[in-house]
Amino acid sequence: MRRWNGWGEDTTEVELPAHGAEFLHALIGAGEPLADATLEQVLARVPASRLPAHPQVSLDAEDRLRHARGQSLPDWLAMRSGDFGVFPDGVAFPETAGQIRELMAWAAERDLVLIPYGGGTSVAGHINPQHGERPVLTLSLERMNSLLEIDAASLIATFGPGANGPQVESQLRAQGYTLGHFPQSWELSTLGGWVAARSSGQQSLRYGRIEQLFAGGTLETFAGPLQLPSFPASAAGPDLREMVLGSEGRFGVISEVRVRISRLPDAETFYAVFLPDWPRALEAIRSLAQARVPLSMLRLSNAIETRTQLALAGHPEQIALLEKYLALRGARGDKCMLTFGVTGSRVQNAASLRQARKLLRSFGGVFTGTLLGRKWAQNRFRFPYLRHGLWSAGYLVDTLETATDWSNVDTLLNRLEASLRDGLADAGERVHVFTHLSHVYGEGCSLYTTYVYRPGGSYAQALERWQRLKHAASRCIVDNRGTISHQHGVGRDHAPYLAVEKGERGMAALRALAVHFDPEGRLAPGVLLPE
Amino acid sequence: MRRWNGWGEDTTEVELPAHGAEFLHALIGAGEPLADATLEQVLARVPASRLPAHPQVSLDAEDRLRHARGQSLPDWLAMRSGDFGVFPDGVAFPETAGQIRELMAWAAERDLVLIPYGGGTSVAGHINPQHGERPVLTLSLERMNSLLEIDAASLIATFGPGANGPQVESQLRAQGYTLGHFPQSWELSTLGGWVAARSSGQQSLRYGRIEQLFAGGTLETFAGPLQLPSFPASAAGPDLREMVLGSEGRFGVISEVRVRISRLPDAETFYAVFLPDWPRALEAIRSLAQARVPLSMLRLSNAIETRTQLALAGHPEQIALLEKYLALRGARGDKCMLTFGVTGSRVQNAASLRQARKLLRSFGGVFTGTLLGRKWAQNRFRFPYLRHGLWSAGYLVDTLETATDWSNVDTLLNRLEASLRDGLADAGERVHVFTHLSHVYGEGCSLYTTYVYRPGGSYAQALERWQRLKHAASRCIVDNRGTISHQHGVGRDHAPYLAVEKGERGMAALRALAVHFDPEGRLAPGVLLPE
């Protein structure tokens, strides 16, 4: 069963290897485990609902509890402490667009707040109900998860918005297709959520971001349904899909999604290469991106992340052998691990691999074959489970992400890591910080930074530390030409920083659209556009 | 000097070859040349301006005349007949964003209509002033044509909005870069115009449409400047660039454009292949697109266009030899010409060519080497000049374009060609119609249809025939799942059909944005959103 207070199915456990615990202990001190509340304790705290009965709405305490929080670190602290804050007054599970419209009409009639809910994997506070006079109805789309139609000639598939990653891929693969969209949250996150929050998958280099995959569909708004027909491309005025992408529930509820799919590739292989140091590694990955070598994935860990990954991998003897081999070939203490994939026809893959190897060798890259690449592919959705292992060992882990132009990557990365590393210095606490670049473009790339810190003995302390770190890092990002999010969206946590990049005029235009579609401000108030 | 009543520089003349004239005569009858008005005659008709003097505004009759019309067929009929309709009351030539803002303030103060003007190449009525009580000021951006900055690491260039194709490319090539955006109007059309009308270049397969090239910039609005910083990608809410792309002057005046550029490629070659018939040709081009073979250009003429091109090419002896060669290899009367390009590194180009040849051979493709491809590349911007040759011979030519999903290409193409071919049947007139597909995507492609008809002895008759053909074709497009424009924009000519694809809700949202940015409706009224 899905965990009520953490990530994924409770049958999957990922523990922190002993070697990894020692590594962290040496870096930031002994872990400080916090005590978890039990489900029974939390259920006892769920208040009475303010909603009347409705045939499609569950007022059940456990349903409400299970839809109250996402997966951000503050969400974890809330769930683990049992101090959830606000619960929705009810959860609806519509099965058709018609039922979504009925529920919206009911919300208008009863003066409710509505929160569209996909997989509940937000790490930015998209789906958390807030205190207020209006009752809150969460609208879970999980039952609208079917593949409705495939246009085989045009490679277009139509889905319900609630299909999660495995539901999308299994229904497509049965017919020989793939969407190719694999965010780390893939096991739980949904198509509608990807569209609403502008998701990016690990193989976006081949398949594109959700912006490129989203061909059309329907948004149910309080002004009526916005129907988006699909065209391969159009010059017929502003692209209305772009109002839905990133709308984060503020303009309406996505009731149908048409996506661009691909035939399953002939072949796919992932490789790992070690570059001797960060300057050469950065130059190499930029060159690969700008030379348009047709790869399907590129991920470059900085030296600290490379060391951390090797430490947390377990198997210390095998890692020692690998390190010896790499050192002999010039990749020593500052080495950076680059993972890349080729996907497609065998002829094209061979040509891509040849180009990539040639270019990487010119920067001192040492190839290690396909073993580490295979490991990456096997474990690509495993990281969120590792949070449990770290939690049990008494360490808190969070991630941040942004994107910036190549000319600014080094500056932003250094400042961002420093803002976190030194963020708790006045409390005498060390923070372990590391980064990888995982989505590359001609213009620049994403930066994905992980930080590990100690909770400080109490939930209150843990949250206060997170707030300081998150604020310092967010401020650092927007003050240094980064976007406040490359792939997680804005939600509530990033909303205070959004105006720096959108500008006063941009924020006003988005507000004008929100008022146009939802004059009563019923949909996810406070998300995206701060109140 | 640039022609005042036609396309391009008056030093370039393209005549219709004798063989081509016979070909058209046989198909639709003898040409019927119309008499042209002279510049003096038209200048005498320019009325007095309603504007007071302003240091940046020209009230000169010839300036006003030269900014009154675009390049659509009705524009040609207006210019050639001398019956221009409405002239702008003045033309401003700002040199800075500050001057644009001053002119906008002046327009507000004096209650003027403002028409942003790039290269004046619109074929959909974007820049034509209309009758009305408010004086009309056309805002030409031609003096803001400089390359302002290059970020070499991020491959981003910042330009003034008025740089035309040659100005963009010459300033970039001097430093080893290219934008790679080559619409057929390239010699005259401008960066700001490409953004405002969502242009697509002939090599969009490699470089992307203007939507992918436009990284950011500034839109001067009546609510203040909308600044769009550039990020490689972002999940920070709806993408505001998409409000500027396709805004067609309705939301503001583009004062600066940041674009994604590329290093000049190592190598580039174009090839011509003949497919034996349309069904196999269509399947071949779809397969190439969906297999993601990294080509830089794909253009497939249907059988009628192939015949027409070979007839209009001149050199009948050489063409006869080619036809003999092709017939021996199976490409006879129904053959379709496919031109494709490879651009990039030599290793990649070789791999792409190998994949393309293999795939095309499996559909019966006959390769003819690089001669016809070279010819295409040499003549790629020449077609608009041929309108003069056809005009002199007494034939009118116009083009239409749309895009649709692959599963619908054949249906739409057949209906679209029929709507034009039979469009003047009740007058006993034949219309010569042919089509190519020139922008391909995984989901579908663009259709670019050319039609040639006789003016019927008078300008009034010529215009009436055009209106009937244009309406029939536009209706056919939107009623058959085509977009009203793939690359030319909406303007006034397509505005009446836009609501079919945008829907009532979409049109209302766009109007809400127009009112938000320009509450007095001063900017290009009637363009994009019908009045």
TrEMBL record, chains A, B:
GO biological process, one term: lipid biosynthetic process
One of the Pfam families matching this protein, by short name: FAD_binding_4
Residues reported to bind substrate: R387
List of residues binding FAD: P116, Y117, G118, G119, G120, T121, S122, E248, G249, R250, F251, G252, V253, I254
FAD-binding PCMH-type domain boundaries: 84-264
Entry keywords, A to Z: FAD, Flavoprotein
Site features described as Important for enzyme activity, chain residue numbers: R299
Name of the protein this chain belongs to: Alkyldihydroxyacetonephosphate synthase
Record has Membrane as a keyword: no
Family, similarity comment: Belongs to the FAD-binding oxidoreductase/transferase type 4 family.
Molecular function terms from GO: alkylglycerone-phosphate synthase activity; FAD binding
Cofactor requirement: FAD
Location of the active site: Y448 (proton donor/acceptor)
